[in-house]
């Protein structure tokens, strides 16, 4: 078991544990914080996979920007554990069971999939995840989606204004 | 000559149209003149035809193709031969007398009803003429149903009275039951032979199996049962007395009820080939003769007695047909037409005089008030009772003799019926004309002889009743004296070849004749003496008398067995099956949708959590369904 | 690293996200769980990208194999960012009107 | 060109009628249109060759606007063309609110009916099939009785289900035609396996059975007839039910010869059951309209049974009976309408003695009733005679069972005559007067038709002979 | 390509128009002009005239089918704005932004009609969805609108997650984001690849998320609530153009994948179709609000449109276009009338025929078309759907089931007609109905009838 394997399992355990903590934390602020931990763990995985660009973007966009936004909103609304109502126990149970079923079913499929049995994800090596390569592709082959995503942002922007602006 | 035949039905049809359309504008005299005149004109043409047939034989005249399909052709054709020309004479002859009689009898009616009445009468005669003249079974069926319709219209002539309407309806429906049999027989013939024309049918009879013939004849006989009032379809005829009395005369004597006889006589070849049916016909006829006679014994309505006597006499005719005495049956039709018309018209005369009193218990002693009516009525009674040499004697004797030859039991029962006939006819006669007057003072004051339009037909018919029998003097008395038989021989030729009429020893015949005549005479004496001193009493009859008076409760039986269950079934269908069953089913589909809607609505709970839960579950199910090759099951079994 | 491991990990995270969506009432947390799901997908895509890259080594596709998946992840992040801005705006609007972010509270519209 | 005119005249005049505000003008205009249509129809009847029409419509779909007037089509067009002017005259004195719309919808339904009878292309047929239905739906719902909305709605959905099933059937057959075409001829040549055939057969048949209607699909009918304005009821029972029969002969028997022979037994049993069932129910009815409705079910049952006997006689009977039943039943509805308009009731228990007050009505009603019970020398006799004959050839016992309904028909029809016309007058009929001139004229025309066709039915038989032979050729 | 570029640009133009003028009507006119330009641009595109020549690197694939659909969508939007533009102005203050968002949606629509890879599909769907979340919540003071918006957003985001997982799994199996259809070669072995579990599972998840977008049961739950809660004008837009675009994407996507999917595919699809028809039709029966009824009816119509997927042949492709036209015209028409009404319940329509015969008549035509009565465009729409399945063979039972549901649909559509024509009542409208509006409605009704008699007018345009 090399260092990479150890790191993989460590990060995985961390990600899953934090993800569960996001669920079970009563305090929304804690949830946000745990989610940030998940994002860090995932970024760790990206680094393991030598996807440097995404690791950085993930940290900046998700952990940095988005989660802060979340935190900000939660703070703004002054939500805390005491005020948050909880779902009925059986609703929670039903949710957990159906989510579990979903997981089980898909995992079973993967276990049966013979075409995956001898495939590995290339760790560390490989330069597809480097900024240079990605950048080249983004501005050559992927320029159209790249430009079009600007429309997405425009509409999100307009939307946020329409919704957020006081009449 | 053959074109002349068109005129025969044409005149009554014209009369019908003129009287029917002009009933409001024409005067009563005009109406009655047209009504009677058209029939009379037909009679004259019939006479011409009759003599033509007599010398030249029968002929067929095709008017046009009524139905012409690829499968068969049914021409609208008239056939004049011995049988039909004889019937033509009876129908138009007696018909015109009845028309004449009606002119006076119906005088009290309002003009438009008067016109309606004559229109119906003419239509009645027209239908009957079609029936008789038709050259195939379909045209016969047209007339067959036509007379049913006319009887319906005439029985319910006084339509304000609902009882009469019921009687009319009953007549029609009962006839229809028989008609169905007739119709099925026609289909059978058409199916097997592809034609319904008499000549072709009788010529092609060899193509029919004996089962076919038996079935066809039985079905035809069912038709005859309805039309000619045989058990079990006879109950309409007594009820048909609801109509004006001349109508009863027309129905009983000239038209309608004789149709069944005519039809079987017409189809004699088929019947001769179907011994089983013949037996059926004979037994039914005999049973009806006896059964109706027993009922007639205790009836108090003057017309009802006559009605049951008709049923009974028709039974004799069928007996004759059943034993193969076709000529005898036709002969009896003829003589019966004379005296029965006379009886009814006489009864009408009495009723007319008594201001529509029909209960013979309230009459009596009318002899002195209405001499002509009395005499003619008496003659008719003698004729029907079978006293020689009145007409009824000859015809009835011929039938009974033939019955004896076939089966002596038929004969004895038949004679029994004849005795009863004598009894109830003279009971009727005695109660009406002899003894004291038992009606009210006022009635007595008004009783009078009828006008000439009514008495003249009576007299003519009386003469015919007396002498009518001489066309059929038995071989016994004189060789070749039975002119009717000779005249009709071509019609029954085929049957005669197949089944020769058995001849009895002359001694036996004499003995039978004498014996029955004496017995009948005794019975007449018994009846007259018993009812001569009859007084009106309040006491009601009991026991068998009551059963007889109530006509063996047959109507009640029919109600209980057929009418009421059918009504109940109809009600069940209407209220239960239709509403809750079929429509309920249809509606419940709608209700189900509504119910489903209300339930499915609840799925839309408004909770995002629930929505997503269902989505996730659906996904799981989808995946499970998709990979149903046990991959997943295998995995699950590994885990658990 | 066998690709199954990554798949299991990502599916687990994804399912945890789903369970979160199903069990929490706070709209913001629910939304966060959706983000968790997206991140699971991102990780999976990157893992696949590296898998396909690994498979393509020595073939003509070597230069581009796996690249598209990483670009896709990039776009997912872009979309997620846009979605978050709109989503939070909606949640805030909701909060302004009802002073609650409880999704069970949203039941005016039903049946 | 004649067939197109038959459709176009009522269609265009109908659309114009919507905008005529003046009631009197609308009535006259509609009447004029109907008379012109009648004239055109008469020329079609007397033309020597089969009038037809063909135009491109949906080339991609393999559907052409093809019209063909064979004997049966011409006869039914004539029935439609004859009926409408008579109906318009008969209800001339009735006041309908929004008169223009009323007559417009009537004319539209006429156009639809004509189209159904003339269409020689399955899609065109389906179109007109629905076009005939929609105006009737509006007519019933707008001018009907108290429960009109619910009742006509049921009727509409019921028939709509049927026609959708038919559409599925049409599609299926269409995709099995050699040239992917909706043309009648292509449909006739289609070859299906036995299993397919019997399945698709039922899809079609249910649609037609609902329209006719055949037991047990009939329950919409009495309610609808009862609730509809009588003018519409006349169209529905006089002509529209013939659509079902017509469609069976045109679209069912020749396309599915084996299935229709195979299923004949079931259908005939159903029809005969329906005849007796409906007749029995008719006996217990207390409402003129419902009685006539049930009697109509019984009569249609006979026609349906006779169609499936697959013999010439039966089919010829059906042909002429289609026309005759139309004439008779319209007469009966006119009487029902007159009585309702005049006396405000249709209940037998509230009627009686009308013969004293309105002898002309009495006579004409009796004639119509006699035709209804198929008395010889009325028009129905010939048809029923041939149909029973066909049924008899098919199976004796079926004929016997069906024959019972003849007797029952007499019972309920005479009941009706008695309860309406005979007996003494009652409160409702005390002040009754003779029917008005326009109704008299119409009824007399109908009565004359009844008698003339009853005495000399041959022209009708000759007219439809070609259709009969064509239909039975496949057997 | 023209459509994508122009709609994005026009969206920006609309944003700025709000700054230039405060006159709302003027903004509407600008939008109408923009739509006409857009339509022209798209039509020119089909004739090979381009605004800009852009190398899409096979990210997009402009074929006739998609371009023609663009024209339909844009024309429908044009009709929609012409009829209901005045009502958009009434929703809130940000009229210019609403129009901008509508143009952005159209941009998404254009992408969905021409994507050639899963990446563009994803982007297209998001570009289409995000403005809709906002439009749904446009009536900010209205709690229902808020609620609808939030529900829509949360569920939309969730379904995006599902879709992405599906895409990821497909990528894992195939190593590409391209559409299936051609047999892929495994990079390592050079042999044709057999279908992997992962790919099928991925397609399944993709299928689920597309079902969500087109509101097919059991993923339809957002539809009634969102359609009901959203401002009626925008519901009209969502229920027609957006939904149709979803279907076009759906068909384009799975058209390429059907051979990858086994026979179970049809079974599953049949289940979805029946569930959709059942829930849509049956639940609509009991609704009291016409708006909500129309929401359910749009689910029911989706059930019919899914037939195109099931049939999966050329007939289906033609049919879905015709269906789009018929359905959009009718729904836009009926919503245009609905918006004018004070009371959205069935009773609110009582006696409309007396008061506003033109409105009643045109809505009747629209409803008849929705119900699929012959002589209206809706008939041929349904006809094509059924025909495509019959042609595909073997699934007649499904068609028959569908037919029964179609009959149920008559029930609730005709309830409106009954209310308008057969019932007495005081149907109240918001203000006076302008003559222009009536003319517009009559034109819509006329188009419905025209396409009902000559559907070739639409289809021939498809073939040029």
Question: Features of this protein?
Answer:
heteropentamer, A: about 170 residues, Four Helix Bundle (Hemerythrin (Met), subunit A), 2 domains, about 75% helix, globular, C: about 110 residues, mainly alpha, Helix Hairpins
Explain this structure:
The complex is a heteropentamer of chains A (167), B (640), C (111), D (475) and E (464). By secondary structure, chain B is mainly α. Among the domains of chain B are: 337-537, no CATH class; 550-604; 608-640, no CATH class. Chain B has helices at residues 7-21, 28-56, 82-105, 111-133, 137-155, 162-193, 198-203, 210-227, 236-239, 245-254, 258-266, 268-272, 275-297, 302-322, 326-353, 371-385, 391-406, 408-433, 441-446, 452-467, 483-488, 493-498, 506-531, 543-549, 554-603, 608-626, 631-639; strands at residues 59-68, 73-80. A two-stranded antiparallel ribbon of chain B has the order 1-2. In chain B, helix 2 (28-56) runs parallel beside helix 4 (111-133). Chain B is globular. Chain C is an all-alpha fold and 111 residues long. Chain C is 75% helix and 0% strand. Chain C has three helices and no strands. The longest helix of chain C is centred in the last third of the chain and has 32 residues, at 67-98. In chain C, 74% of the residues are buried. Chain D is an all-alpha fold and 475 residues long. Chain D is built from 20 helices and two strands. In chain D, strand 1 (52-58) and strand 2 form a beta hairpin. The longest helix of chain E has 32 residues, at 143-174. Chain E is mainly α and 464 residues long. Chain E is built from 18 helices and no strands. At the A-C interface, helix 1, helix 2, helix 3, helix 4 and helix 5 of A face helix 1, helix 2 and helix 3 of C.
| Rg of chain E, nearest Å | 21 Å
What structural class results from the helix and strand content of chain C?
A: mainly alpha
| Radius of gyration of chain C using CA atoms only | 19 Å
Amino- and carboxy-terminal Cα gap of chain E: 19 Å
Tell me the number of strands of chain C: 0
State the largest interface: A-C, 80 and 75 residues
The low-pLDDT segments of chain C are none
**What is the percentage of strand-forming residues of chain C?**
under 5%
Tell the overall outline of chain C.
elongated
CATH C-level name of chain C: Mainly Alpha
Name the shape of chain E in a single word: globular
Q: Structural class given helices, strands, pairing of chain E?
A: mainly alpha
CATH topology of chain C: Helix Hairpins
Tally of separate helices of chain C: 3
Oligomer: heteropentamer
* Sheet of most strands of chain C: none
- Architecture of chain C in CATH? Orthogonal Bundle
Total helical segments of chain E: 18
